[in-house]
Amino acid sequence: MITLESVKKVFRTKDGEVNAVDTVDLHVQQGEIFGIIGYSGAGKSTLIRMLNMLERPTSGNVTVAGKSLSHLSAGELRKARQEISMIFQHFNLLWSRTVKENIAFPLEIAGKSKAEIDSRVNELIKLVGLEGRGGSYPSQLSGGQKQRVGIARALANNPKVLLCDEATSALDPKTTESILDLLVEINQKLGLTIVLITHEMHVIRKICHRVAVMENGKVVEQGEVLSVFRNPSQNITKDFVKQVTEPEETVDTIKHLVEEFPESKIIRLTFVGGSAEQPVITQLIRKFDLSVNILQGKVSQTQNGPYGSLFIQLDGEQESVDQAVAFLHEHQVEVEVIDNA
Ligand SMILES: Nc1ncnc2c1ncn2[C@@H]1O[C@H](COP(=O)(O)OP(=O)(O)OP(=O)(O)O)[C@@H](O)[C@H]1O
């Protein structure tokens, strides 16, 4: 659905050149939710804005739905943009227009009749759960409701792709959840391809099928969300994965336990897919002559299945510990022994 080939964006400023996006190759499949994560300044906004030519690449090629965007005329680009919609962190609504009028705006531009507009707007209001609010002005809505208007407006002309520029960053955690649920719902109902940028791994974990990690303008790692969670190769990715698996206090607890009990083994177990749902620890305790102390654990759902990590402390003979580790491996559980180093 979307292909980026050697895409670069260089900004020329009075302080010199900034390589905002540096030789990026990406492929987003039709119907998937693809997340791009990175810290501030990594180049995410510049990258997503090149997917609808709000920003033109300095070099390289962007193809969306079979069209190479760099080669389109202004008129063709306007048409292509109807198929590539966008929602924004600060909603970008028209404040003097009601909810209905905001949603109608792209339909008016597309030259639809009044009857078509009315019927489509009502359909969209229902789809995003804003029944009864059609006559309200944006200033009368909560942040979550404003983003629902943004989503309805973006869907008005039946786009093939929805670009989300930090769409939940201005929302509280509960509202974030409901907007993320809505994005999954429209992805499934409409088969819409969604590309989102975020700095929160929670967003990737909850709704994305695949993820690309950006650092200094480059994509440093990409893959299925579950396999990136299981096996992050870059340090930056490991840090992002920790955002959703390891609360800060775990690090302190483990440090303390490693110092306090140098003889016992602290082990981090990573469960992926089916193994996250099996009672492996119960079996471990029954089978081996070990005392097992559970320090911290968490299982989260991703779009590709469950993912969990658990920290345990094992006490017993070295032979039993080795057998227990082998047993865990046999059950597709990844084991990392945390030592005093
Ligand atoms: N119009 C511009 N002119 C000059 N430099 C720019 C411009 N837009 C972005 N940059 C620079 O390009 C780099 C990437 O910025 P970008 O906004 O794409 O990153 P980001 O990952 O989206 O970060 P944030 O979440 O803070 O927006 C930064 O160094 C930024 O200062």
SSE arrangement:
Layout: E1 2-13, E2 16-28, E3 33-37, H1 44-49, E4 59-64, E5 67-68, H2 74-81, E6 84-88, H3 99-109, H4 114-127, H5 143-155, E7 161-165, H6 173-190, E8 193-198, H7 201-207, E9 210-215, E10 218-224, H8 225-230, H9 235-245, H10 248-260, E11 265-272, H11 280-287, E12 291-302, E13 305-315, H12 318-330, E14 333-338
Helix pairs in contact: 3-4, 3-5, 4-5, 5-6
Bound molecules: adenosine-5'-triphosphate.
Pfam family, one: NIL
Organism: Fictibacillus iocasae
Domain ABC transporter: 2-241
Describe the structure.
Helices cover 38% and strands 30% of the residues. Helix 3 crosses helix 4 (114-127). The protein is α/β, with parallel strands linked by helices. It has twelve helices and 14 strands. The protein has a six-stranded mixed sheet with strand order 6-7-8-3-9-10. A four-stranded antiparallel sheet has the order 2-1-4-5. The chain has helices at 44-49, 74-81, 99-109, 114-127, 143-155, 173-190, 201-207, 225-230, 235-245, 248-260, 280-287, 318-330, and strands spanning 2-13, 16-28, 33-37, 59-64, 67-68, 84-88, 161-165, 193-198, 210-215, 218-224, 265-272, 291-302, 305-315, 333-338. It folds into two domains: 2-243, Rossmann fold; 246-338, Alpha-Beta Plaits (2-Layer Sandwich). The model has no long low-confidence stretch (mean pLDDT 90). Bound molecules: adenosine-5'-triphosphate. InterPro entries: AAA+_ATPase, ABC_transporter-like_ATP-bd, ABC_transporter-like_CS, ACT-like_dom_sf, MetN_ABC, MetN_ABC_transporter-like, NIL_domain, P-loop_NTPase. Pfam families: ABC_tran, NIL. Residues 2-241 form the ABC transporter domain. Keywords: Amino-acid transport, ATP-binding, Cell membrane, Membrane, Nucleotide-binding, Translocase, Transport. This is Methionine ABC transporter ATP-binding protein.
